[in-house]
Amino acid sequence: MQPLSAPQEIPSVSAGGRLATGPAIAVGGAAVALVVGAVTLWVQYGTAVFFETIAAGFQACF
């Protein structure tokens, strides 16, 4: 009995096709830092002051 198709090699991932790990790690680290900062502010100031601080920060930037 003959196989239906010839065996094929699995293509290997080339160096150019890989995900850029350096920038991905940097973006992930920045996201984690923002979340940790937000949780820290929330714990320190409470919910009402936390939201007012965030709103004041946006207002100062824009």
UniProtKB/TrEMBL annotation:
Positions of transmembrane segments: 20-43
Transmembrane keyword on record: yes
Keyword Transmembrane: yes
Keywords associated with the record: Membrane, Transmembrane, Transmembrane helix
Protein known as: Uncharacterized protein
Organism of derivation: Bradyrhizobium oligotrophicum S58
